[in-house]
């Protein structure tokens, strides 16, 4: 498959547990984004990776959230000590940056996280 | 990023053209206009983007006014599968990597 792949597609966890969400971007895409979408709400930017540059973490809601991108490819979003308000769909996107401001994002299908 | 304003919802009859407006009166000269859509329970999908000229692709046409303060996304022959939330976003090259989504327009295509 040539698209952005996210796993798992669904994750149910108990409050206080840690979770890891994975994103496999499209091969060759240098930019990777994480967003989340709570039920009935818009998309909330979380973090952005571009090549070897320092990530833009300005959207992470608390220090319980972190993300890394290994080898410029796969990314993992980690949520520690999950809370019920973390329940949402977590979406990953990648982009073949050619000219900043003139690129398009390709989204995965998301991970539905439910914190009980 | 320049702020955009879209109507919260619109209806369109199947087979007719859907014209979705977007106001971006504070747009800067180097900022692009992007359109994405999100069909229920799916990730957003890129539709089209442009800087100042009108653009057309297999999905839609983008009409940008001469002063660039507004634009219209046109779906020439809307189908039921085009029912989705449509997001208009303005972004330039000096604003980092993040694309900020607003509330969008919920388009309902009716038979």
Give the topology string of chain A: H per helix, E per strand.
EEEEEEEEEE
Largest sheet of chain A: 6 strands, mixed
Number of helices of chain A: 0
Quaternary structure of the protein: heterodimer
- From the N-terminal CA to the C-terminal CA of chain B, the straight-line distance is 37 Å
Structural class by helix and strand composition of chain A: mainly beta
Overall morphology of chain B: globular
- The average pLDDT value of chain B, as a whole number, equals 92
Low-confidence stretches of chain A: none
Count the beta strands of chain A.
Answer: 10
* Beta-strand residue percentage of chain B: over 45%
Mean pLDDT of chain A, as a whole number? 91
Gyration radius of chain B (Cα, Å) is: 13 Å
State the major sheet of chain B: 5 strands, mixed
What is the strand content of chain A?
Answer: 35-45%
Q: How many beta-strand runs of chain B? A: 9
Helix and strand succession of chain B?
EEEEEEEEE
Which percent range fits the helix content of chain A? under 10%
Helix content of chain B: under 10%
Largest interface: A-B, 27 and 27 residues
Unreliable stretches of chain B (pLDDT < 50, length at least 5) are none
Your description of this structure?
The complex is a heterodimer of chains A (116) and B (111). Helix content of chain A is 0%, strand content 45%. Chain A contains no helices and ten strands. The radius of gyration of chain A is 14 Å and the shape is globular. Chain B has strands at residues 9-13, 18-23, 32-38, 45-50, 55-56, 61-64, 70-75, 84-91, 105-110. In chain B, strand 5 (55-56) and strand 6 form a beta hairpin. Classes of the chains: A mainly beta (116), B mainly beta (111). At the A-B interface, strand 4, strand 5 and strand 9 of A face strand 3 and strand 4 of B.
């Amino acid at each position: 498959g040539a698209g952005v792949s996210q796993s798992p597609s669904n994750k149910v966890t108990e409050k206080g547990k840690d979770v890891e969400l994975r994103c496999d971007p499209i091969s060759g895409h240098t930019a990777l984004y994480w967003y989340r979408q709570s039920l009935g709400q818009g998309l909330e930017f979380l973090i952005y990776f571009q090549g070897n540059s320092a990530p833009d973490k300005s959207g992470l809601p608390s220090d319980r959230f972190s993300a890394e991108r290994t080898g410029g490819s796969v990314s993992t979003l980690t949520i520690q000590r999950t809370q019920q308000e973390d329940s949402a769909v977590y979406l990953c996107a990648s982009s073949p940056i050619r000219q900043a401001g003139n690129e398009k994002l390709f989204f995965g299908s998301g991970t539905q996280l439910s914190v009980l | 990023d320049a702020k955009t304003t879209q109507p919260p919802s619109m209806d369109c009859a199947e087979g007719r053209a859907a014209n979705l407006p977007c106001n971006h009166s504070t747009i800067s000269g180097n900022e692009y206009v992007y359109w994405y859509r999100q069909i229920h329970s799916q990730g957003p999908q890129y539709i089209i983007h442009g800087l100042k000229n009108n653009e057309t692709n297999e999905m839609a046409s983008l009409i940008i006014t001469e002063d660039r303060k507004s634009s219209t996304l046109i779906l020439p022959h809307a189908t039921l599968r085009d029912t989705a939330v449509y997001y208009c976003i303005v972004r330039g090259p000096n604003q980092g990597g993040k694309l900020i989504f607003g509330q969008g327009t919920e388009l309902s295509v009716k038979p």
